[in-house]
Amino acid sequence: MKLIHMLIIYQLVFFTICFSDVIPVNKNVSQLQNNKTAFSLKNELDKTTPSGNGKALLLLPFQHEFKENRKTLERYFNNAGYKTEVYEDGDANIDKFRGSFLADFDVVYISTHGHNNIGLSKTDNKKFAPQIVVGINSIEIDRKAFDKLTLEEQQATGRIDEGAEGSFGLSAKWFKITSNGKSFKNTWVYLNACHSAGVTSGENSFSETFLELGAAAFNGYSDFIIIPLSNAISEATIAIFTSGSSFNQMNKKVKSSLRLKFIQMRIYMNARESRKKYADINLFVSKKGITDDFYLK
């Protein structure tokens, strides 16, 4: 009997020694609570949100073509505490694309066409890649708008699809030139446009340009993206990000979304052979300019 008692005591001592670091005891409760409070405080200190005026901007110059769920996107932002301003089609004119105008918003969502290696106006033989499009106007209307620009601004613009109608393209340099010294305040910038994240550094990079101007995070696409898929990704991205997920969490959820993968598969099966590679969630690119966790709310 004494031997059994000794074995039990030995096992208890051995258990206590081996597992005392994972079993809380009463005398350490206050210390654990203090550690938990310190951890929560650290998380709050490491958390960054937009610091502007609480407004979200939606520029939709091709809404007649893209047909996004505008009301749904607005509701997501409104529920997250942002007031939305929306400009569609002709109302999304070149002045709404000026850096100084965009800098007044905590969220900048621009949904438009994007192109790569587009020749600029005849005043400059260089090529800027990529460019995003203001909208479709007659050459006469765009020419009047073009003539009002400074020479530096003109050199940061281009024209796409010359003909009876065309598109006014803007390079990354345009946003820096037209910022007029105004900086973004931890803004989230999302360019729902082909090639918008195709260049990752230098003066032709949209992501680097916006982050240098004070944006906290950027999303775009590295290549062409099929519109129905990009619309689905945009809606999922905004829904997740405005629900309380961090920027990093949001991007992981988008890439792993079963719903988006199903949409991707359906679009892939119906696409022409030459377009199949552009039905891919992995073309969605994320770039963050801060070390803290970034949240919209």
What does this structure look like?
It is a single chain. A hairpin with a 4-residue loop joins strand 9 (157-160) and strand 10. With 297 residues, the protein is of the alpha/beta class. The chain is globular and about 50 Å long. It is 39% helix and 21% strand. Strands 3-2-4-11-12-13 form a 6-stranded mixed β-sheet, with helices on both faces. The protein has helices at residues 2-19, 29-45, 63-66, 70-79, 99-102, 139-147, 151-154, 172-177, 206-212, 227-241, 247-256, 258-270, and strands spanning 47-48, 55-60, 83-88, 107-111, 114-115, 118-119, 127-128, 131-138, 157-160, 165-171, 188-192, 217-221, 284-288, 293-294.
Keywords:
297 residues; alpha/beta; six-stranded mixed sheet; four-stranded antiparallel sheet; 12 helices; 14 strands; globular
Helix content: 25-40%
Backbone CA Rg: 26 Å
Quaternary state of this entry equals: single chain
Query: In sequence order, what are the helices and strands, one letter per element?
Result: HHEEHHEHEEEEEHHEEHEHEHHHEE
Approximate strand percentage: 15-25%
Query: How many DSSP-defined strands?
Result: 14
How many angstroms separate the termini?
65 Å
Mean pLDDT: 83
Question: How are the strands ordered across the major sheet?
Answer: 3-2-4-11-12-13
Instruction: Assign the structural class, choosing from mainly alpha, mainly beta, alpha/beta, alpha+beta, or little secondary structure.
Output: alpha/beta
Number of helices, counting only DSSP H or I runs of 4 residues or more: 12
Low-pLDDT runs of 5+ residues are 6-42, 119-126
Q: How can the largest sheet be summarized? A: 6 strands, mixed
Global outline = globular
